[in-house]
Amino acid sequence: MEWILEESWREKLKDKLDKSYYRKLVEKVREEYKNETCYPPEDKIFNALNLCPFDKVKVVIMGQDPYFNPGQAMGLSFSVPEGVQLPPSLKTLYRALGINLNGINQPSGDLTRWAEQGVLLLNTVLTVREKQANSHRKYKWRLFTDAVVSALNEEREHIVFMLWGRIAQRKERFIRTDNGRHMVLKAVHPAARRYGGWDGNDHFGCCNAYLEKNKILPIVWTVVDA
Predict the structure, then answer these.
(1) Choosing from 55, 65, 146, 178, which is the catalytic residue?
(2) What is the pLDDT of residues 122-167, one digit of tens each?
(3) pLDDT digits (tens, 9 = 90+) for 95-116
(4) Residue 65 is a catalytic residue
C-alpha cells in the first residue's frame, strides 16, 4: 500500500523523503505491517499531516506513539475513532476543558474536529506493534517528526506547540520562541498518574489568547460531540 502524504507536506519534506534513513524506515515498517498486527491502519499513518496542511497549522499537540490496542489508533495523537471508549489521557484533556464525562451521552473521542481547525495532532513515532508500546521507536520515526517541527518553526510564525511529557519535550530544541515567534507550552503527560493532577489545565486558554493576540482565529476546543 502506498503511503499517501498531503501535497504541501510532501513539498516541505521532500528532501527528508529522499534520505536513506527514511527509505529504510518505510521498508522496515511495511515489513512489520505485513508480518505483525500494527497500528494505526496503514492508510492512516500520515492522518495528522493529511488533515492539517502545512499552511493551516495553528497548534501542534505532540503525543508519544499510537495507541497499541485494537480499534483505538487513528493517526491522530490522543484521538480514538467515533464510538470507542475514551482512553485515560483523553479523559484528562476533556476534564481540563470542562467537558462532562459523567452523563449518559459520552463525548466523542474523535479529534478530527480539532485537526480541521488547524491542530496538528502528531505523535513523535507514527506506528506501533499491537500491545507493545514504543516498539517502532527504533525505526527512526523521531527524525521524520523532528523534520516536521523544524519546517514549521523555520517557515511559519505564531504556532503554539503543546509538549506534554518528556518525550514530546525533546522537540523544544527545534522551536524558536524569541520575540514571540512561536509559543511552547509544557506539562507532564496527561496519562502520568504518578504526578497527581495534570499541570496543563490552562494550556488551552493560553493557546487561544496567544492566537488571538496574533490575529489568528482561536480553536473551538469543546467541539467534541458526535
Answers:
(1) 65
(2) 999 999 999 999 999 999 999 999 999 999 999 999 999 999 999 9
(3) 999 998 987 788 999 999 999 9
(4) yes
For 182-199, letters b (16+ CB in 10 Å) and e give: bbbbbbbbbbbeeeeebe
Backbone dihedral angles phi then psi of residue 80, each to the nearest 5 degrees? -130, 155
- Residue 40 region, left (φ>0) first, then alpha (ψ -120 to 50), else beta? beta
At 210, which amino acid appears? Y
- Indicate the SS3 state at residue 22: helix
Q: 128-129 and 38-39: which strand pairing? A: antiparallel
The number of helices, as runs of H, and strands, as runs of E, in the chain is: 9, 6
Cα→Cα distances 182→149, 169, 217, Å: 12, 15, 16
pTM, to two decimals: 0.96
